[in-house]
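TICKET: design request
STATUS: open
ATTACHED STRUCTURE:
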């Protein structure tokens, strides 16, 4: 008897809640009709639909996005309310703005090597195949130089083209942070890819765990130091990707050795000539040099310098990223290890995040999303 009374009480509460929701809905409909009659377009929100049906906004979101865990009768009731009220998600409302056909995302690639560009483009195409929506497009812009002025001009050109969002791989500078914040304020969400601008209002960052990458490199090289010195060759430390690798390397080196005084860092801005000259100078001046961590892409510059220097002592080398040059040197036994990252996966995930945000009103669950890091040796090729 007690159970029956409890069930009856629950049913009464449910019915009462639905009746209250219906009453609020009738009042709301009257307000909408009254405002529409005066030529005022009232914005319909997901909360209005939820109130109409006596459900949560989360349930409305699951129905709108076609997700599971909604009872069939509830789904039908919510869909009727959506149709009656004319509810549209923010992404759908943007799609219906005059002169806007589909959704376009701008993807800016810095002036790096062809390997990086090919992998990024492969990731973009993989994302578009997964999405399968011809109305969603990606406009790729490749920079011809490393100047901040060209980068900012490229962003402004994409704005003039009315892109709905952007993927940026940019230096962590005050100017770039301001650009991203300005885009966000203008309703153009930004995802940073590969290199982050963490102080900005970007939607999220997708890339390698850079500190871990540097720590892994240190762990691989310490056993071969034998009390000798190590040279760290980095790119442009304005890029978070380059700076954090070095920080992770030195952090782990200190943990394992108790000292980083035998480590020397040079900055070569991804250039062959600066890498060649810097490595050649360090090898010739320092007979204690036993290892090199190539935290930038100019592996060929490093290897050519080692060939020219003809150091009497063996010098072990670990680099980042399995570029075609790195693959050849690893296969030949001239590189000890490669700490690789998934450029293609970073690009794919960046495009998918913006698609979910712009077209499905789904914000990413995390502010930082890491892709896999791999350690490759000659035997694993």
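STATUS: resolved
RESOLUTION: sequence designed for all positions
ATTACHED SEQUENCE:
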């Amino acid at each position: 008897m007690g159970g029956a009374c409890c069930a009856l009480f629950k049913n009464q509460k449910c019915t009462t809640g639905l009746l209250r929701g219906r009453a609020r809905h009738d009042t709301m409909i009257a307000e909408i009709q009254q405002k529409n009659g005066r030529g005022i377009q009232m914005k319909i929100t997901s909360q209005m639909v939820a109130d109409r049906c006596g459900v949560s906004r989360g349930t409305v979101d699951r129905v709108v996005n076609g997700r599971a865990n909604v009872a069939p009768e509830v789904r039908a009731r919510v869909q009727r309310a959506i149709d009656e009220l004319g509810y549209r998600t923010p992404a759908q409302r943007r799609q219906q703005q005059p002169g806007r056909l589909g959704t376009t995302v701008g993807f800016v690639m810095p002036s790096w090597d062809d390997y990086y560009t090919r992998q990024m483009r492969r990731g973009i195409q993989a994302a578009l195949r997964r999405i399968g929506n011809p109305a969603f497009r990606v406009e790729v812009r490749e920079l011809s130089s490393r100047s901040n002025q060209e980068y900012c001009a490229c962003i402004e050109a994409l704005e003039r083209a009315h892109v709905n969002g952007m993927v940026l791989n940019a230096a962590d500078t005050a100017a770039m942070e301001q650009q991203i914040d300005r885009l966000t304020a203008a309703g153009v969400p930004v995802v940073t890819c590969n290199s982050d601008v963490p102080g900005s209002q970007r939607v999220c960052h997708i890339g390698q765990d850079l500190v871990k990458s540097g720590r892994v490199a240190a762990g691989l090289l310490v056993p071969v130091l034998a009390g000798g010195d190590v040279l760290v060759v980095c790119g442009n430390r304005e890029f978070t990707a380059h700076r954090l690798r070095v920080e992770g390397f030195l952090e782990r080196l200190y943990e394992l050795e108790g000292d980083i005084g035998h480590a020397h860092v040079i900055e070569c801005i991804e250039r062959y000539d600066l890498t060649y000259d810097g490595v050649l100078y360090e090898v010739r001046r320092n007979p204690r040099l036993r290892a090199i961590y190539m935290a930038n892409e100019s592996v060929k510059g490093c290897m050519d310098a080692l060939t020219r220097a003809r150091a009497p002592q063996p010098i072990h080398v670990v680099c980042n990223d399995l570029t075609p040059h790195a693959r050849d040197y690893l296969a030949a036994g001239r590189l000890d290890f490669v700490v690789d990252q998934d450029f293609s996966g970073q690009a794919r995930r960046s495009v998918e995040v913006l698609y979910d945000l712009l077209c499905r009103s789904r914000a990413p669950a995390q502010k930082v999303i890491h892709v896999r890091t791999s350690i490759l040796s000659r035997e694993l090729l």
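CLOSING REMARK: The chain has a mean pLDDT of 85. The first helix runs from residue 2 to 37.
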